[in-house]
Amino acid sequence: MTTLDVPVRNIVGDIDKPRGGALAAQVRHSVALARRSLIKTIRTPEALIDVTLQPIIFLLIFTYLFGGAITGGDRHAYLQFLLPGLLAQSLAMGGIALGQNLNADIEKGVFDRFRSLPVARSAPLVGAVVADIVRYMTVCVVMLGFGSVMGFRVETGLLPALAAVGLSIGFGLCFCWISVWVGMMVRTSGAVQGTMFLLVMPLSFGSNVFVETSTLPGWLQSFVHVNPITHLVGTIRGLLVGGPVQFHLLITLAWMAGLLAVFVPLALRAYGRRA
Amino acid sequence: MSDLVVRAEGLRKRFGKTQALDGVDLSMRRGTVLGVLGPNGAGKTTAVRVLATLLRPDEGTAEVAGIDVLKQPQRVRRRIGLTGQYASVDEDLTGTQNLVLIGQLLDLTTRDAKRRAVELLEWFDLTEAAGRPAKTYSGGMRRRLDLAASLVGHPEVIFLDEPTTGLDPAKREDMWGVVRSQVTQGASVLLTTQYLEEADALADEIVVIHHGRVIAFDTPDGLKRRVGGLTLRVRPSDPARVPDALRVLDAVAAPGTGASMDDAAGARRGAISVPVATDTAIDEALPALRRAGIEFSDLGLHLPSLDEVFHSLTESTTAPQTTAAKEDELV
Ligand SMILES: Nc1ncnc2c1ncn2[C@@H]1O[C@H](COP(=O)(O)OP(=O)(O)OP(=O)(O)O)[C@@H](O)[C@H]1O
Ligand SMILES: [Mg+2]
């Protein structure tokens, strides 16, 4: 070890004022923490299986195994129907890993360090959520790319397709706050996964992802009609293969706002309490 | 400005059935090292976490760098550095990335954060490993990175929770050097440790915590004096003269005590121990031994080691029920 002299604090100006103001500081901190999450993602590409291989397998299984039976033979028609639905399901499932990672970070004590630093309480969580954009983008690219290899065709146009991707990412970013909250509440990262599956499975199967709502029994239909996944799927279907969009879009946006309004404060509070 | 850079009063914290802190008062003078000692589960980590704004106490107040920890935690965080008991480095990030991230969160510009990272990595002997993910580091390397991380912001007050656990002896002494150099530059350091030797070497003052309470607060020498008192130790060159020497030395023993053969094995074998009241006893002992014609190979005044102090302090304090119950659960 060298005897290099490390100078004492040489910060110019008021040490209590964040550089560039509180808001700029919070944005900077969140970006720095998002970068941290991205580095972790790049270091462990196998952690992307749930947004790459998994949706592909679902797509293959449902198209070739059940597709014929469900539509009476027309697999291509079923693929056109199924892909927007599976996209929505994959977005919801894609958020689970975030809660697991945050839970593991807290258990390991990595967050203790962040909590001893002068950053906004929300910054570590916001940073992690922002970095999740990459995962939702990956889902969209993989689904549309692999889907097109299987024969899926966008029937509307480039702009609606881009809008579908934008909405998908936006929905993913809102929905994942549930996972963040669960990640703060339960003890182990395994429990995060278990709890989130209990939530995501009924939401994705109790919807119009795999079959038309009209084929379902009445009591189930009432659940399907309030299910946010249903309306996300409706919107994406409209944007990718045509059909009415506005109604589903409005409800989807309302759900997104609602998810943020409820789960962001819940997650922050749970994070603050977790010692 | 107050001379006290850490001041805590009546800290209490309960986890379920365990009263981890049961009314802890602490104070640390600016520019000094405060050693916090205590057996496992004494409440050291809990106290550090309260002072470092990670944990809200159930009761009590605390000030760090003159700022209320509970009312203005954000201002406290700008002035402290923390290395927790368990390594909190990010395993997927490289050494450099870990330190740069902390610099950025401390509002350094990215350029300054990078420069600071290079400086610290060099200082902690991690330059070669700087570009490797921390998960490839050995335990000691992680610990050093963790220590470097607490110094990124040139903190005024540094909290180190068992900073040298898991370091080899050479690296441990390096770390002592780091602590001393921080103090030379005006920082104050609160460190917990299991090594009494470490507290003895570094701390200006020592707090002993046991079952969530402070059972002693003194300088290292003060603690030693308080528990065992001074001992004069004489080793006659000729074992046959031991009885004579015992008789001579009895005269200088502190009231109510007497000279005796040291029953400890090893280096102290064959030596005579005499509890004495003050260090002037040596001035009486020397001429008396000369007059009696007793030659000796070793003669000196000794304070008890901190180990002895520690054991006598913690053994005399009985365990409250709750903690005993908790320790059973651990088995
Ligand atoms: N989060 C927690 N939940 C429950 N009990 C806790 C928690 N943190 C600490 N404790 C309990 O509080 C007591 C004090 O713990 P603390 O970690 O402060 O001890 P310590 O002096 O640092 O011990 P060690 O030398 O083993 O690190 C212990 O009995 C411990 O089991
Ligand atoms: Mg501890």
TrEMBL record, chain A:
Keywords: Antibiotic resistance, Cell membrane, Membrane, Transmembrane, Transmembrane helix, Transport. GO terms for biological process: response to antibiotic. Residues 46-274 form the ABC transmembrane type-2 domain. It is found in: Cell membrane; Membrane. GO terms for cellular component: ATP-binding cassette (ABC) transporter complex. It is a multi-pass membrane protein. The chain crosses the membrane at residues 47-66, 78-102, 123-146, 158-182, 194-211, 247-268. GO terms for molecular function: ABC-type transporter activity. Belongs to the ABC-2 integral membrane protein family. This is Transport permease protein. It comes from Mangrovihabitans endophyticus.
